[in-house]
Design brief:
It is a single chain. The protein is mainly α. The protein folds into 5 domains: 174 residues, Rossmann fold, CATH 3.40.50; 70 residues, Glutamyl-tRNA Synthetase, Domain 3 (Glutamyl-tRNA Synthetase, domain 3), CATH 3.90.800; 63 residues, no CATH class; 60 residues, no CATH class; 94 residues, Arc Repressor Mutant, subunit A. Helices cover 46% and strands 10% of the residues. The strands form 5 sheets. It has a 3-stranded antiparallel sheet with strand order 3-4-7. Strands 11-10-12 form a 3-stranded mixed sheet, with no helix packed on it. Strands 1-2 form a two-stranded parallel ribbon. α1 packs antiparallel against α5 and α15 packs antiparallel against α16.
Length: 541
């Protein structure tokens, strides 16, 4: 029996050989220095913010260099795959307008872009390793592996399938193997490691610099008993065939580098360049820790959608985490597309970026302050139709009023920044649609004094012609009621007055809206109209 015949019997369903796929997937023709990047999310849980983070980096580096970025769904761990996991990944990429050039939905010359649909490819490459005696079938069971691990632990030795622990299976003849196969024994395919743990290998990581590791000597599984490879084998094969120039992935994969380097070597392929991004971190009790899927809602991309944080703000914030010089550039270039920013590996942190919720909120508020009132209305409405139907109904019924309210203080040098996420809109806007039930009284809290101010205002000083005329009327009322109409005079001799024009204005503001913090009060009064204002004040009185 030749090794070719032997390999074919181990892979009876493999349709093509390695040469077929190397011919099918031609080398990419791109400008010198162009990046080919990808993300490889697994549908084994919710879409992690790290997936978006790496998407921002991958697409930016590819687009600015005239290269290509693509999505590849890495679903070889089918035991852990969740329902609709693939769809959630593709939805997140779509929702955030990540400019990938190829992928499961977009298509491309290197399809399929889902690993479970590329099984024949992996088997063809594993078959090639069998032919060249760089891989072998393994019949060891899970129970036997557990006993082996216990024995290694008892002897205080390294844990794993290597060296003398793998010697028996390595020594099987082709005839012994085929006898087991013909008897129906289940088997995996393992790499026949040529490594020596005492030797060192290294990578020049694009972010972290040169890193040394002990050489891999583990006979790791490259094809599972179901015929599907683990990530460790699928990744080198796919990135080779798809022409990836740099693998951008989380630093949790660093420990796998020696195995991946040996697989590249066994396949006779030049190793891919790696860029291991540092983990996104949170601060807790004065200490930093990795952002947690279990503890931190911000780890889940769906959190940003549910809260109504604009996708543009999320992407800008992720850029601040990706490159240390981006924030300075962004502040110095207002209104300039982030496409103009030049991303580099040199400006990526090797130690981890701290997730700052307040900074994200400020970016979101600043962004939403730049969009038109009509655009903001549509954004809030579309969010509410999914997450707050009753509010959506109110917005639908009060379109013109809502847009007029959102347009207040939107066109000056310092536009209002009271909304940073669409979920805040109900609390910010509801006093425009119904009388308040609660009142945020400030300095003046005496009920009789409040009643006196509001009654006097409606009886004698209400004005909605223009802002200056309105404020002049309020100042006249202050003089009548014993309040300072001139703030300078009040600050100079506060004891001579019951309060200031600011205090009186706040009473009117709270009496009409319930809130002490609103955009320009005259504009609100103008939108509501005298009848509604009078109705609200009479109700309160």
């Amino acid at each position: 029996m030749t090794r070719e015949e032997y390999a074919s019997m181990l892979f009876p369903n493999c349709k093509h050989d390695r040469a077929y796929y190397e011919k099918k997937y031609k080398r990419r023709e791109l400008p010198e220095g162009a990046f080919v990047t990808r993300i490889g999310p697994s549908p084994t849980g919710f879409v992690h913010i790290g997936t978006l983070f790496q998407s921002v980096i991958a697409t930016k580096l590819a687009s600015q260099s005239g290269g290509v970025s693509y999505v590849r769904i890495e679903d070889t761990d089918q035991k852990r795959e969740i329902e609709n996991g693939k769809e959630a990944i593709l939805k997140a990429v779509s929702d955030y307008d990540m400019p990938f050039n190829e992928g499961p939905i977009i298509g491309g010359d290197y399809a399929p872009y889902v690993q479970s649909e590329r099984v024949d490819i992996y088997q063809a490459f594993a078959k090639d390793l069998i032919i060249r005696d760089l891989a072998y079938p393994s019949f060891i069971t899970e129970e036997e592996l557990a006993k082996l691990t216990d024995e290694q632990a008892r002897l205080k030795q390294r844990i794993g399938y290597f060296g003398k622990w793998a010697a028996k299976e390595r020594a099987y003849t082709m005839e012994e193997v085929m006898e087991k196969v013909n008897n129906g024994e289940s088997y995996t395919i393992r790499l026949k490691s040529q490594g020596d743990f005492e030797n060192k290998v290294f990578i020049d990581d694009a972010i972290k610099g040169r890193i040394e590791f002990p050489e891999n000597d583990m006979d790791s599984v490259i094809i599972k008993s179901n015929g599907i490879p683990p990530y460790h084998f699928a990744h080198p094969v796919d990135d080779y065939l798809m022409g990836t120039t740099v693998v951008i992935r989380g630093e949790e994969w660093l420990s796998s580098v020696p195995l991946h380097l040996e697989i590249f070597k066994a396949l006779g392929i030049e190793p891919i360049k790696y860029a291991h991004t540092s983990s996104i971190q949170k601060e807790e009790d004065g200490k930093r820790r990795k952002i947690s899927k279990r503890k931190d809602p911000e780890a889940n991309v769906e959190y940003y959608t549910k809260m109504g944080i604009p996708k543009e703000a999320v992407k800008v914030y992720l850029l601040t985490l990706a490159n240390s010089n981006f924030e300075e550039w962004y502040l110095a270039n207002p209104g300039v597309s982030t496409d103009e920013f030049k991303m580099t590996f040199e400006k990526m942190s090797g130690s981890g970026a701290l997730f700052d919720t307040e900074k994200l909120n400020n970016i979101a508020k600043t962004f939403l302050s730049t969009v038109s009132a009509e655009d903001l209305y549509e954004r809030i409405l579309n969010w509410a139709r999914v997450y707050d139907e009753s509010f959506a109904s109110i917005l639908d019924s009060n379109r013109d009023k809502a847009i007029s309210f959102l347009d207040i203080e939107r066109h000056g040098n310092k536009p209002r920044k009271d909304i940073g996420m669409y979920s805040e809109a109900r609390d910010t806007m509801m006093y425009m649609f119904e009388s308040p039930e609660k009142y945020d009284w400030q300095k003046i809290t005496d009920k009789n004094e409040i009643a006196s101010i509001l009654k006097t205002y409606m009886d004698k000083y209400y004005d909605d012609t223009d802002n200056d005329a309105w404020f002049s009327k309020v100042k006249e009322m202050c003089d009548e009621l014993g309040y300072a109409s001139d703030m300078k005079a009040y600050k100079k001799n506060p004891e001579e007055f019951k309060g200031s024009v600011a205090d009186v204005s706040t009473v009117i503001r709270v009496g009409i809206t319930g809130s002490s913090r609103t955009p320009n009060l005259f504009d609100i009064i103008k939108i509501l109209g005298r009848d509604e204002v009078e109705k609200r004040i009479n109700k309160l009185l």
